Amino acid sequence: MNDDELFAEPARRAGRLRGVKLEQRAFEATFDGARLRVEAVAAGIGRLRLAESAFAPQRSWDALQPLAPEPSAASAERAGGARLDVGGMRLELADDGRLEVIGPDGDAWLAQTEAAAWGRPRLGALGIRLREGDELPAGRDGVLARLSLRLDPQDRLWGFGQRTGGLDKRGRRLTNWAADPFGIGHHRGSDNLYQALPVFLAVKPGRAFGAFLHVSHLSRFDAGYSDPDLLSVEALGGEIDLFLFAGPTPAEVLEQLTRLTGRPMLPPAWALGFHQSRWGYDRPERLLEVVDGFRERHLPLDAVHLDIDYMRGYRSFTWDPQRFPDPAGFCDAVHRRGARVVTIIDPGVKDDPGAGYRVADEALERGLMLRNGDASPFRGYVWPDRALLPDFARAEVRAWWGDLHRDSLLEAGVDGVWNDMNEPTVFDAPFASGHARDRPIPLGLEHGDAEERATHLEVRNLYGALEGRATFEALERHRPESRPWVLTRSAGVGSQRTCATWMGDNNSWWEHLALSVPQLLGMGLSGSPHAGVDIGGFFENGQPELFARWMELGAFYPFMRNHTALGTRPQEPWAFGAEVEAVARQALELRYRLLPYLVTLAHEASERGAPLMRPLGYEYPNVDAVLDQDDVFLLGPWLLVAPALRPRQRWRSVVLPPGRWRDFWTGREVAGDAAGDARAALLPTLPGRPPLLLREGALLPLGEVRQSTASPPTELRLVVTAAARSRYRLVEDDGASPAAAPRHGAARPGDAGVAITTLALDAEPGRLVLELGARSGGFDPPPRTLTVELRLDRPPERVRLDGRDVQATWDRERSAAELGWADDGAGHRLELTL
Ligand code: MIG
Asked: What global pTM score does this model have?
């Protein structure tokens, strides 16, 4: 977009570089018309701020975590301009005032191409829906800053949060503005959805780096859209505040990003199980019938979700007295069936003061809701008709909102909370009118405490995040013995600390089944790994084969929930007949067998930001041939999943990353055929048996099939494939205690609620040694069998456990040598002669 299209006035430029001031871990440069600050924030993390004059104040609700700067992290030297080493990359300012990000080998990762520009943009150029007659707020809020940078032609651009399309977003323009595409749904051409996460990775063989635009105002990346070689960063609020992460691998970028913005929360055990939901389960009898339906058919289930139908006239924090006369009795009945209850909460509070609805009365009395310029409450139409919106940028409001959960939901026994409509979305008329259309909120609407007033333009992208945080903190406060679980539709950077998310309203389309892979990969790469999509599809009627394939794929989603819209055909796993039900059962059984692995992966996420679902290039960043594969993924380090994504698909081709791969189901090696510089294999997509490959050196912890996480496991199984050397750290926890989830840093052996076992595999021709370290930590798993299942080409000649000869059984169907013993938590050494 050229300047005349973008700006409503002649753009102002930074101008001539006037001088540079060096500090110990930073430098500041003054231009005729701009100010630049470059800072080494911590090892591998740099920050670049560019404004016309003063930098924006840090907000009390900001996502940034306090970081201890590493004293040796940086040095600024004078060489005409200035340079700052942040460890793993240098940030340089040339004499002519242009910025560069330089890798350790001297390559320019990003290079500024023209002077930064500022100006008030044309509203129509921003590409967002606006309230009729709305204008940009006055002052710096309404000023757009733009910085253009040259990209390496080889770089793939990953992340950018919640998006449609493929894994690599290069060639697109990406707007960061939370919005519900209601009535349109989302599709390949969609731009911004419910969540704004202005985060990306640039990846090419040999190195990756990352960036986070720390601007909550509306912003945009032109990622090679206007010019294939240019990335331009545009932000309202008048400032470019860009954090840069040196990598050099994708895993390190995620570690750096989440060190800065917060590590993902650790879900309670039940939340990693299966969730059944639908809009329209409107009575306790119906919900209990659904839970019983799972139990009778031996379909594992851990949670049911209550959509808006449970409320009294869509009033948040109420139960409909006719339909749900005894919420506690209902929750108890679900609990007795080994499942959990999740209730939806919408931020739109019904505007009916004086009608006995405590929430509205308090909100108005105490002035807790968003207000118009004339101090009257801001109103919009949502489910309860005319509604008020809480001002979540205020700590007082977050505490009040959080406390509302206690009497209404927590005391009844509700286990988790689901936040919807929190972009926030409001309409112009009651839904009953039949012509309600969504009505954007004025950009200048004020949020926040008097001492830190901010506009809607600044707060919107964090509104859902702040609601989620209020909810999470309330659960921590009022139920300190359990790990909170909150699901949210809108979210922002930092939400990963408190919330799981889903991708909103998809359709029962094969396209949306396929989309879920790059979409969830993008979420994990943006630091928000606990995500899922509505299995079976939300809008439109589910279809048998599509539903079966969706359950197969959904078994690998970090968050696995079946959900569908009001009025669509039934979508319980048994709704499509016996064949589909059988596939769904296999998928659910696989999910539950994977739980020990998912728990370990959730710990890896909470310790280092590692996503559970990973693109192949996350684990093999130097292998060009796998970087662009976005219809397959890895679950953690060990499992490659190549799902069926098309109707009547009988085969799946997959590019194999280097090393040896074994079919999970048969144990046989999948050699593949040479395909260019890589190898590719063709795998059968048998119903209920998604193509699944084990990496060499896999140390994959599995459990047995359970109907719910409420029943204690009785087996831990380690599936192992040979490799010269492999290491893994199995983390188990009690599934409930918050102590198992340190907010920052790795789970340590001393942590309550955690058990850690180190696994070490070493092999040489003819010999394989597996060492299990003694279990450490405060959590003692219930009595169980420990089984080791080694996937080998043929039965081993000799097996010794702790120096004594033992017998292993040989299972031909899985090509596996297997032996087990009562798990005593002690260290063991298994030696095989092959
Ligand atoms: O205007 O609560 O995305 O999951 O079922 C629709 C009803 C409101 C949108 C959510 C969807 C939920 C639905 N909600």
From this structure: 0.98
